[in-house]
Amino acid sequence: MQSTDLDRSIVETAYARWAPIYDAVCGPVMVNGRRAAAKAARATGGRILEVGVGTGLSFDDYDASTEIIGIDLSAPMLAKARERMASGRYPYVKDVRLMDAHRMAFADATFDCVVAQFVITLVAHPEQVLSECHRVVKPGGRIILVNHLYSEKGVAAAVERWAAQRTRGLGLRPEFPFARLQAWAHANNDAILVERRKVAPFGIYTLVCFERAVSSAA
């Protein structure tokens, strides 16, 4: 089942409201998924783009072996991220920019790794964002996603379908299936699924990693 896409204005409005309390409310809830994604990104290393950088909660999860560029659609969230940068604690975070992930202002093959934490189920057109991530990552580079993904069957799926209609105004889409990510990869011959795993300890979140294949000509 393909979930109904979110409207951009709903997401922008929701996250403007979330900005003042996002760290306190979402930080503890998402910490394991966030750290798992950053750890996978550090293993790739190099220049990393974080899509949906938000308030910069993930800055502590990177280190000097990386160079971080962040983008987000929410100006209030980015204001919080810039406050973090101004502390001087994160010299490896080079810039955060107001940017729509559907149309990134980066050249092809700019980054060694692209990370999207709790983002792909929230954007208006996920396949378009995935294709943009694929465009800006270098051949041999990786796209790392972490999210709660739709359970697809059983009681959990029924609950998520029920919740979906009641959480859309909060900028959420709990019924997003892994099959949708898989279908995108199948439609892109050089997008290779290299990892899909539940994040410990509770398996609420799933980490998914795609690699952009290196062409035979290269």
From TrEMBL:
<dbReference type="InterPro" id="IPR013216">
    <property type="entry name" value="Methyltransf_11"/>
</dbReference>
<feature type="domain" description="Methyltransferase type 11">
    <location>
        <begin position="49"/>
        <end position="145"/>
    </location>
</feature>
<dbReference type="Pfam" id="PF08241">
    <property type="entry name" value="Methyltransf_11"/>
</dbReference>
<keyword id="KW-0808">Transferase</keyword>
<dbReference type="GO" id="GO:0032259">
    <property type="term" value="P:methylation"/>
</dbReference>
<dbReference type="InterPro" id="IPR029063">
    <property type="entry name" value="SAM-dependent_MTases_sf"/>
</dbReference>
<protein>
    <submittedName>
        <fullName>Class I SAM-dependent methyltransferase</fullName>
    </submittedName>
</protein>
<keyword id="KW-0489">Methyltransferase</keyword>
<dbReference type="GO" id="GO:0008757">
    <property type="term" value="F:S-adenosylmethionine-dependent methyltransferase activity"/>
</dbReference>
<dbReference type="InterPro" id="IPR050508">
    <property type="entry name" value="Methyltransf_Superfamily"/>
</dbReference>
